[in-house]
Amino acid sequence: MLINSAPDSNSGASSKALAYAESALAQKHHLRMVFFYADGVAHLAYPEHKSSQAWQAFAQLHGLSLEVCSTVVERDFQLAESDVKAPFLLSGLTEFVSAASAADELVEF
């Protein structure tokens, strides 16, 4: 699963993505990776936002990590590695592409 949308986007994409993820797990599907890229990294940068908190609760409930693009974290949001707290995890495009190529389906929000 690829999240490109900020938590406060007018499209509500983050909330839709979370609903999709919850539904997928309820139907016994496996989420190989939840990867936040581009504006989606704002979920890490603004942890107090309602949507970010919902994703964090979802990850903790299901024992998942929320992977964020390390380049975007550093370059666009000027955050240090020490700013990344569980359930968020620094990752890269290589890991994302590897997970996406092994998955049956890739969904993007």
Rg, Å, rounded: 13 Å
Low-confidence stretches: none
Total number of helices: 5
For the record, what CATH class applies?
Alpha Beta
Biggest sheet, strands in spatial order? Answer: 1-2-3-4
**Whole-Å distance between the termini?**
8 Å
Outline: globular
GO molecular function: sulfur carrier activity
GO biological process, one term: tRNA wobble position uridine thiolation
Pfam families: DsrE
InterPro entries: DsrEFH-like, Sulphur_relay_DsrE/F-like
Properties at a glance:
4 strands; alpha/beta; globular; 109 residues; four-stranded parallel sheet; Hypothetical Protein Ychn, Chain: A
Describe the structure.
- This protein has helices at residues 13-26, 42-45, 50-62, 70-75, 93-102; strands at residues 2-3, 34-36, 66-69, 88-91.
- It has 109 residues and is of the alpha/beta class.
- It has one domain (2-102): DsrEFH-like (Hypothetical Protein Ychn, Chain: A), CATH 3.40.1260.
- It has a four-stranded parallel beta sheet.
- Helix 1 packs parallel to helix 3.
- It starts with a strand and ends in a 7-residue tail after the last helix.
- The model has no long low-confidence stretch (mean pLDDT 96).
Architecture blueprint of SSEs:
Elements: E1 2-3, H1 13-26, E2 34-36, H2 42-45, H3 50-62, E3 66-69, H4 70-75, E4 88-91, H5 93-102
Parallel strand pairs: 1-2, 2-3, 3-4
Helix pairs in contact: 1-3
